[in-house]
What we know:
mainly beta, Barwin-like endoglucanases, 2 helices, 11% helix
Amino acid sequence: MLVHIVKSKIHRVTVTEANLNYIGSITIDEDLMDAANVIANEKVSIVNNNNGERFETYVIKGERGSGVVCLNGAAARKVQPGDIVIIMAFAMMDFEEAKTFKPAIIFPDTKTNKLI
Length: 116
């Protein structure tokens, strides 16, 4: 049996931009991506702590060290710059493997989006 497990989580990061006139996705600082074990084009679920919105999109690399977290395209309507979001990626794995799997969970500084 396979189960969906949280693989990666960027817990409480601040949205820096919302760009409606873009094809789609979420741009994330590459430092945050590396720390959370998230790759470009990976599907992620996003929870907006400010308004309760929950949605999915895919990741594109943002400038390393910039702190950028930008929602693009239609997802830009679900956030405002300054909102606090949680970004999660999931993986499917064998039930027994999932029991001992340790996800990459990071807690960036919400003022700078830099790793603490």
